[in-house]
Design brief:
3-stranded antiparallel sheet; mainly alpha; two-stranded antiparallel ribbon; 2 domains
Length: about 290
């Protein structure tokens, strides 16, 4: 139901978020409200039309939305105060009651899948597999909006039963396609560096060489740091790594290999559009 409206909401918010991510590497928080609240409304309308008892699953879905809207940088930031404890308790109770009474309902299976996949995205973020909070939240909001594949998703793919689709939800297809998009970057970096004559493995697959002054002005991480006054290569920069360009310059380093801070909302947006066109690439195997 309302697939066209959901897609309009999703693509509008993702494009706006991509613009801000490209420009500032920051995404306005209100965007997630514009995606999350309609997601629960759409589910509520569909659930009420099918079976009002299905509205119970709004409790765990609301718990997921609350967690997504809270600002946390690490797992250690979680502080379960009484309001959050009651929200999570109600979410768990709604899940248990729904599973006992409606586990055979297709809509409940889809919502249950949405809850599980959202928790999976939270885990990826808290374990630094997904670096940006906005990236994780975008994927969670897409999960809530599209707890099943849109009816016309996959213009060139065979549509699979809802139960099978629930095992690999729409948002996972978006993440897969977004990751494949990012996976093409090493090829670009390789060609770019070979044309410039810059060769250093594996840096030439992950970034490019810049002078310190230029690097200061760009959104990049250095692949070289000073440790006990000695230079040390660091291929995969940490999320909250402090960048001390002055220290590198004072050590006599004039240029350094850098890797760009990828605005992952952009690949997510591309992955979303591709998922609408081709569906889940894994389904071509069936």
């Amino acid at each position: 139901m309302y697939d066209e409206l959901k897609i309009i909401i999703a693509i509008s918010c993702l494009l706006y978020a991509s613009y801000h991510d490209l420009k500032t590497r920051l995404v306005p928080k209100w965007i997630w409200w514009f995606m999350g609240i309609p997601a629960l409304i759409f589910y509520g309308v569909e659930a009420y039309g099918r079976n009002p008892a299905l509205l119970i699953i709004l409790l765990p879905l609301s718990g997921i939305l609350v967690e997504a809207l809270v600002e946390r940088d690490e797992l250690s930031d979680i502080r379960v105060t009484w309001p959050f404890f009651l929200i999570y308790l109600a979410s768990f109770a709604g899940f248990v009651w729904g599973y006992i009474t409606m586990r055979d309902e297709v809509l409940f299976i889809g919502a249950l899948s949405a809850v599980a996949v959202s928790i999976f995205f939270f885990v990826l973020y808290y374990t630094n597999v997904i670096h940006g909070a906005a990236d994780a939240k975008a994927l969670v909001m897409l999960t809530l909006l599209f707890y099943r594949y849109p009816d016309f998703t996959g213009l060139f793919a065979r549509k699979l039963p809802d139960t099978l689709s629930a095992l690999f939800p729409f948002s996972l297809s978006v993440l897969l396609l977004a990751s494949l998009t990012v996976a093409l970057l090493p090829i670009y970096f390789l060609v770019f560096n070979l044309m410039k004559g810059d060769r250093s493995f594996p840096e030439m697959l992950l970034g490019y060489r810049l002078d310190i002054e230029s690097a200061r002005k760009r959104k990049v991480w250095p692949m070289l740091i000073l440790e006990n006054v000695k230079p040390r290569r660091i291929i995969l920069p940490r999320k909250y790594m402090e960048i001390d360009w002055d220290a590198l310059e004072n050590a006599g380093i004039r240029d350094v290999w850098v890797t760009p801070k990828i605005p992952f909302i952009v690949p997510i947006t591309i992955g979303f559009i591709l998922a609408l066109i081709i569906g889940n690439p894994m389904f071509y195997l069936f």
